[in-house]
Amino acid sequence: MCEFAKHYCRQNPDIFADEDSAYVLGFSVIMLNTDAHSSQVRNRMTKPQFVRNNRGINNGEDLPQDLLESVYDDIVNKEIKTGTEFDDLAESELMNWLQQGTVFKKYAYGRVSRDPYHQCRLWIRTTHLCWCNLQARGRRERTVPLDEIEEVIVGASTEVFRRNVVDTHPSEGALCFSLVFGGRTLDLQASTPDETTIWTRYFIQVVERTQLEAHARRIALRAQPREDFFEIASAVWEDEILPDWEDERSKKRTILLWWEGVPSALRGKVWRRAIGDPMGLGAASFASHCAATTGEDQAMAVRSVAHELQRIGSVSLELNLFTSQQSPMQLSLLKLVAATRSYARSCQRELPANVSFLAAMLLLYLDESDAFVCLANMLSLHHLGWRHNQLQWRLEAADHLLQRELPDLAQKFLDYDVPLSDILPTWMGSMLTSTLPLDLTARVWDCYLRDGEFFLWRAMLELMRLLTPAALEATTAAELRHVFEHARHSASVSEKSLFHSIGSNEAAMHEWLKDFSQKLPLPSAERVGTCFDMWTNCSLCEEAQDHRAEGEDMSAREDDEAASELEGAPGTALTSAEGSERQGRRSLRDVNEMWHGIPCSHAFT
Question: What residue stretches are annotated with the Rab-GAP TBC domain (predicted)?
Answer without folding.
Answer: 261-452
